[in-house]
Amino acid sequence: MKEGARTLGDIVDDITKGGADEQEVEGRQILESVGQRSFGPILLVPGLLVLSPLSGVPGVPTIGAIVVLLITGQVLLGHQCFWVPEFILRRRISRERLTKARRFLAPIARFVDTFIKPRLLRLTRRPFNYVIAGACALLAVMMPPLEAIPLANVVTAAGISAFGLGLTTDDGVLVLLGFALTAASLYFLLTVLL
Questions:
Q1: Structural domain for 17, as ranges
Q2: pLDDT grade for 35, boundaries at 50, 70 and 90
Q3: pLDDT for the residue numbered 18
């Protein structure tokens, strides 16, 4: 992996360690722990949170979708540092819920990390980041309508997470997986609506 690259396990730890001594953690603390300058890790935060048991909390998938749309919109506009609105940064998640999310995600992260390696690097570099941003925006638009169906956002969140992790670890195979999950999510949404 590239120097400074992080594993999925590292990022799960970063997401769940924000505000370590507090009973509730603000969105600001979570974003600060992963860094606000990197598209991949900051994209992973909403993806992994919606993929975790936190998605059962009403509104979490929709808030995740808003964050993804804000991030991808800024990528498409060429921004280098990501701005997130104050109401999302102030949103609080209980330490207990974050601990449950970590217990769920940590073993999966360790397993996934054994398969991740830099490959198909062209897919993780410009101009492909704009295509990835567009696909993530499409996934985010699909999340709110699917929130009413239990576990329906697992595929959308997995797609966003695959893109974020692929960019973070320079693994183009994960980017391809993200595109496949985007197509699967779109197919699922259309079959539910029609």
A1: 8-193
A2: low
A3: 60
pTM: 0.78
Is residue 3 in some structural domain? no
SS3 content of the chain, % helix, strand, coil (to 5): 70, 5, 25
The number of folded domains in the chain is 1
CA distances from 180 to 25, 58, 155, 160 (A): 33, 27, 10, 11
Q: Tell me if 6 sits within 8 A of 33, measured CB to CB.
A: no
**Does any domain span residue 159?**
yes
CA distance 75 to 184: 24
Three-state secondary structure call for residue 25: strand
- 186 located within any domain: yes
